[in-house]
Design a protein that fits this description.
alpha/beta, 20% strand, Rossmann fold
Length: 247
């Protein structure tokens, strides 16, 4: 099978077409997004957001640190990071290119320690070396170019800054049988019935299958300018946290 370089929702012929389709899809499913996330993950999404925040406790405790949460969706990971910040810290920036998802993030988390920005993770609206930590939770695999997305994150990170990508993974071996039965058949059925958009929840397992496995993802991180890269797998390796440090 040809190696995947980025997300696809169908047989798109250009990255711009992919980005438009992904954006439209998330705008459409935004009203049911939180409910379905919790149902499909059996509530583990909340645990994983908190676990990611704990992993970056030292940098989050620095009140002057600049933090960016990419593909923030309705803001749960961003809020988990913000809870670890001391009083009077610099605000965290949550960025997403779905206006409907961001509208729900602003409604859920109106606190002044988070700045919500509509923007494209492939073309971040920030100068070079702006941030001390960049995270993404279950959104990075929706980018049109994984290697390009990593390079863009490296661009906006300061030397010594950290990256944290919490992302789904396709397990292998015996655990893959159970995973594939649930994630490829049951989860899309639930998602389609509740959201009314079956194609969006067929895209979910397809996007995980397309996403690089940990060895390849770690190689891409190294090529993009990250050292000390590692992956911590969760729940039969169906998800995990990628970490690295900007050279």
């Amino acid at each position: 099978m040809q190696e995947s370089t980025g997300a696809r929702t169908a047989n798109e012929t250009s990255p711009d077409e992919v980005a438009h389709n992904v954006q439209a899809m998330f705008n459409h499913i935004a009203p049911k997004y939180d409910l379905l996330n919790h149902l499909i993950s059996m509530g583990l999404d909340r645990h994983w957001w908190r676990k990611t925040a704990r992993a970056f406790h030292p940098v989050l405790q620095n009140p002057r640190a600049q933090i960016l949460d990419l593909c923030c969706g309705t803001g749960d990971q961003t809020a988990a990071l913000a809870k670890k910040r001391p009083a009077n810290s610099e605000p965290i920036t949550g960025l997403d290119f779905s206006s409907e998802m961001l509208a729900r993030a602003r409604a859920k988390f109106p606190a002044n320690n988070i700045l919500w920005v509509e923007g494209d993770a492939m073309h971040l609206p920030f100068p070079d070396a702006s941030f001390d930590l960049v995270t993404a939770a279950f959104g990075f695999r929706n980018l049109t170019d994984y290697a390009g997305g990593l390079r863009e994150i490296a661009r906006v990170l300061r030397p010594g800054g950290q990256i944290g990508i919490l992302e789904a993974n396709q397990p292998e071996g015996a655990s893959a049988v159970i995973y594939n039965l649930y994630f490829s058949r049951i989860a899309p059925l639930i998602g389609g019935l509740i959201s009314g958009d079956r194609s969006a929840y067929k895209y979910l397992p397809d996007s995980v299958r397309r996403f690089p496995r940990p060895p390849r993802m770690l190689s891409l991180m190294q090529q993009a300018g990250f050292e000390d890269s590692c992956w911590d797998g969760y729940l039969l390796h169906s998800a995990g946290l990628y970490r690295g440090v900007r050279w």
